[in-house]
UniProtKB/TrEMBL annotation:
Protein name: Solute carrier family 37 member 1
Function, as annotated: Inorganic phosphate and glucose-6-phosphate antiporter. May transport cytoplasmic glucose-6-phosphate into the lumen of the endoplasmic reticulum and translocate inorganic phosphate into the opposite direction. Independent of a lumenal glucose-6-phosphatase. May not play a role in homeostatic regulation of blood glucose levels.
Membrane topology note: Multi-pass membrane protein
UniProt GO molecular function: glucose 6-phosphate:phosphate antiporter activity
Superkingdom to which the source organism belongs: Eukaryota
Similarity-based family: Belongs to the major facilitator superfamily. Organophosphate:Pi antiporter (OPA) (TC 2.A.1.4) family.
Gene Ontology cellular component list: organelle membrane
Encoding gene, per UniProt annotation: SLC37A1
Reaction equation(s) it catalyzes: D-glucose 6-phosphate(in) + phosphate(out) = D-glucose 6-phosphate(out) + phosphate(in)
Family matches, as InterPro entries: MFS (IPR011701), MFS_dom (IPR020846), MFS_trans_sf (IPR036259), SLC37A1_2 (IPR044740), Sugar_P_transporter (IPR000849)
Length: 508
């Protein structure tokens, strides 16, 4: 009998359960990466919505710059409602405040909607809820870009589009974290979620490259194409997402019901289980904290806890106030508020900062800004590995926040010295700024959502995740708004604000 090919031997070396978990890992990664892909275009297009203003100087017959250094730009024919300064109404001197208001409208709606999204998400099927959010987000992302094709210059149109898009995008985070939490336990959660959370940076990078491709020629496509991608991924979600291991009868989801122990008032739930065939083998750490149902197997007494029942109708979803009482939820929520303030200020304003400091066009500045997200990938993974090794999530966040503050100061100082210095500081700043943010929104949220005080109530994970990320989104809304208000007085003031926020996160 011929030996199996090496590729086939590799495939069959993994169990059915492992393939399912790998599939869910990759699918949820791609789903949320597409959300971030659709958020990035606005930061890339800012440099096109307001460009260096030029005026014809009849005295000497040449162009002179009104808002930046002079340039030798050839005159061009402009539509009646467009000026050399960019796209109305963002061509005025108060463009930074208007662009900041766009960011604030999206992020404020996102923060408010997140608190409601977690509660709603607990009570609806994840697959349907997430599919709806992705289709709606794709539609409103594309709608912003249609303003270019239909020559829309109403500031209210762009604000309303951003507000609705911010609301529907709140369906994403609680859904994907809950789904991933259903499939993976605590054994190597920091590492697994550190790698998984790189979807944020991957989405930002892809969004920057896609938006940058069209920004100088047809900025409307910088929104329409990402919107189409998000909507397409929503269809993929509807067709393929598996919410819980029990839905495909994975062996890791086995639950043994003890007859006579479930009386409608109390139920038995397994937090850990050792199968008969695996009694003498160490349990896979990724299967330790899965909530199990509908199977057969032996029960160890130490793996059984009794939960208050609800007359046999299933475990009730936790209330908002009940989630706040979980130890650590309030503290990490406030810490994330300041950490996300710093991260999202970079997300929305970094390309414009690079344009002003290094005098690059919008496309090149957008491409260069992706280095911050590249650093964020390594920072998130590093934070996860360290927190797993030390088994101290808070200490890991504190260490990275402590290093981030002086790094931001150095960034503001030496980034003006040239392109090479900017590249180096983008990578380092991305790692230190994104590390704590990634750890809190993933591993910490999942840990708190399955806290021992919940006695196995899986319905708390989405609500806890939404509270933590919703509070963080308040900071995400404030950061870009403050940057828009402070940047006219000098970018150094923006960095002082970021360093202060970083110090507040460290203190909390």
């Amino acid at each position: 009998m011929a030996q199996l090919p090496a590729g086939i031997r590799f495939i069959i070396s993994f169990s059915r359960d492992q393939w399912y978990r790998a599939f869910i890992f990759i699918l949820t990664f791609l789903l949320y990466a597409s959300f971030h892909l659709s958020r990035k275009p606005i930061s890339i297009v800012k440099g096109e919505l307001h460009k260096y203003c030029t005026a014809w100087d009849e005295a000497d017959g040449r162009f002179s710059s009104q808002s930046a250094k002079s340039g030798s730009i050839a005159p061009r024919q402009l539509p009646d409602n467009e000026t050399d300064c960019g796209w109305a109404p963002f061509d005025k001197n108060n463009y930074q405040q208007l662009l900041g208001a766009l960011d604030y409208s999206f992020l404020c709606a996102y923060a408010v909607g997140m608190y409601l999204s977690g509660i709603i998400g607990e009570r609806l099927p994840i697959r349907y809820y997430l599919t709806f959010g992705m289709l709606a987000s794709g539609a409103f992302t594309a709608l912003f870009g249609l303003g270019y094709f239909y020559n829309i210059h109403s500031f209210g149109f762009y604000v309303v589009t951003q507000v609705i898009n911010g609301l529907v995008q709140t369906t994403g985070w609680p859904s994907v974290v809950t789904c991933l939490g259903n499939w993976f336990g605590k054994g190597r959660r920091g590492l697994i979620m550190g790698v998984w959370n790189s979807h944020t940076s991957v989405g930002n990078i892809l969004g920057s490259l896609i938006a940058g491709y069209w920004v100088s020629t047809c900025w409307g496509l910088s929104f329409v194409v990402p919107g189409a991608i998000v909507a397409a991924m929503g269809i993929v979600c509807f067709l393929f997402l598996i919410e819980h291991p029990k839905d495909v009868r994975c062996s890791s989801t086995l639950l043994t019901h003890s007859k006579g122990s479930e009386n409608g008032t109390n139920r038995l739930r397994l937090q850990k289980q050792i199968l008969k065939t695996e009694k003498n083998r160490p349990l896979d750490p990724e299967m330790q904290c899965l909530l199990l149902s509908d199977g057969k197997g032996s029960i160890h007494p130490n793996h059984v806890v009794i939960l208050p029942g609800d007359s046999g109708s299933g475990t009730a979803a936790i209330s908002f106030t009940g989630a706040l009482k979980i130890p650590g939820v309030i503290e990490f929520s406030l810490c994330l508020l300041f950490a996300k303030l710093v991260s999202y200020t970079f997300l929305f304003w970094l390309p414009l900062y690079i344009t002003n400091v290094d005098h690059l066009d919008a496309k090149k500045a957008g491409e260069l800004s992706t280095l911050f997200d590249v650093g964020g990938i390594f920072g998130g993974i590093l934070a996860g590995v360290i927190s797993d090794r030390l088994e101290k999530r808070a200490s890991t966040c504190g260490l990275m926040l402590l290093l981030a503050a002086p790094t931001l100061y150095i960034f503001s100082t030496i980034s003006k010295m040239g392109l090479e210095a900017t590249i180096a500081m983008l990578l380092l700043s991305g790692a230190l700024v994104s590390g704590p943010y990634a750890l809190i929104t993933t591993a910490v949220s999942a840990d708190l959502g399955t806290h021992k005080s919940l006695k196995g109530n899986a319905h708390a994970l989405s609500t806890v995740t939404a509270i933590i990320d919703g509070t963080g989104s308040v900071g995400a809304a404030l950061g870009p708004l403050l940057a828009g208000l402070l940047s006219p007085s000098g970018w150094s003031n923006v960095f002082y604000m970021l360093m202060f926020a970083d110090a507040c996160a460290l203190l909390i």
